[in-house]
């Protein structure tokens, strides 16, 4: 298809101009104001996360079949980013769904070691991230 004067790009621009002219100005202004209010609330909440004393944080043991699929390792990294919200007592690894018959605890160690490398930066945002040696 042509992208010249009569092509899809021109039609798309015409459609956008039509939509802009159809939307009443006061409706657009209201939508922008609502967006600004929600953005402000989100920023205020993000700026002051609630701190729970360590002895009141939920205790947990993370169980994983890490090593079977790439998303297992990605999930472990994401989990480690939330360790400031929990008391992590330990990790257990096993195999799931009969796919694999070996465990990969070295992948947990690798993720925890990587967490240790970025820990100083994480603590700039929240001081209650636990040590990777914990």
TrEMBL record:
Residues 59-134 form the Cellulose-binding Sde182 nucleoside hydrolase-like domain. One of its GO terms (molecular function) is hydrolase activity, hydrolyzing N-glycosyl compounds. Keywords: Membrane, Transmembrane, Transmembrane helix. InterPro entries: Ribo_hydro-like (IPR036452), Sde182_NH-like (IPR011483). The keyword Heme does not apply. This is Cellulose-binding Sde182 nucleoside hydrolase-like domain-containing protein. Gene3D superfamilies: Ribonucleoside hydrolase-like. The keyword Transmembrane applies. The chain crosses the membrane at residues 25-48.
